[in-house]
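task queued by scheduler; priority normal; single chain, no ligands, no partner chains; default sampling; output format set to structure tokens
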Amino acid sequence: MLAFLVASLVLAITPGPGVTYIVTRSIAQGRAAGLASVLGVALGNLGNGIGAAVGLAILFARIPTAYDVVRIAGALYLALLGVLALRAPAMKKDATTLASSSLAIVRDGFFVALLNPKTALFFAAFLPQFVATPSALEAALYAASFVAIAAVTDAGYALAASRIAPMLKSDRAAAVMRWAPACVYFALAILALSSGGA
């Protein structure tokens, strides 16, 4: 278990698409949005971890078409988020808008992580090295432990990124921050499409 925790920490602090999404949200919308994105990404990763534990990754490995369907669906969803980010009006600061936008950020983070089939394949490759017996429950517990570690490191990224956000409050910076999330979404969509089959 100690070896698993150390390996998980090393992997969790390595930036990837989830960290990119979280940092972009944190800079563009602040700490609350960043932490909401952390929650969404963590839930999506947990879904992939549990899916891998019960054999979803095996399905991807044996039926490449299933991998491609999820990969393409994920890329289309990310592209849609990019379009919506460009069309979104300026954020209002009333409590209702903040509450609804936080839910939307959690939802988007969840699907960004869940619709990345490589996460499930990662768990399928990573977990068997540490799970002593072929138990879905044990694998799910290990996956949940990894997600918890990643959530902590992701929160660190969110807090650090939100600290520099006040330095980006000019009109020009606001325009950049409007385009930045959209560009990240489009880049992640292209990455998903270019990743190829399983």
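post-processing summary
- The CA atoms of residues 24 and 181 lie 6 Å apart.
- The radius of gyration is 17 Å.
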